[in-house]
Design goal:
By secondary structure, the protein is an alpha+beta fold. It has a four-stranded mixed sheet, covered by helices on one side. It contains two helices and four strands; from the N terminus they run βαβαββ.
Length: 82
Amino acid sequence: MNEPFVKIDLHGLRQEEAVKAIDKALASAGPGTYHLQIVHGFNRGTNLRSMIRDWYRDDPRIVRMMPGDNPGVTVMVLKELY
């Protein structure tokens, strides 16, 4: 996967399944991948959001995490664009 911005939809997944999906995306991210946009949802996705932010907080592959365009999205920055 060498797309600059990758979107992963975690709707309906349990925490273990979400971790596997994110880990797979991180492992297959190519040198041209800058952001992973993680769609976890807002109302029922807050547990996933908290888990993602706690679990991947100190991951060396991730430069930083930030909220997405809406509360149901978290963006993992793998590389800065500039």
